[in-house]
Amino acid sequence: MRAEIGLKEVAERAGVSMRTVSNVVRDTGRFSEATRARVLRASGSTTSRRPGTPRPR
What we know:
Elements: H1 7-14, H2 18-26, H3 33-43
């Protein structure tokens, strides 16, 4: 099982703010595709999921 990481750790890994990570995860606000890719890569996510969908188990 993979341990979950928080916004702060993802932000540090991606070199962006916690607000940017939150915006990418929620798919709100303005950010480039390059930033989106960095955040998703830093979070270990290879695919994004729509907000409100259940996490895979």
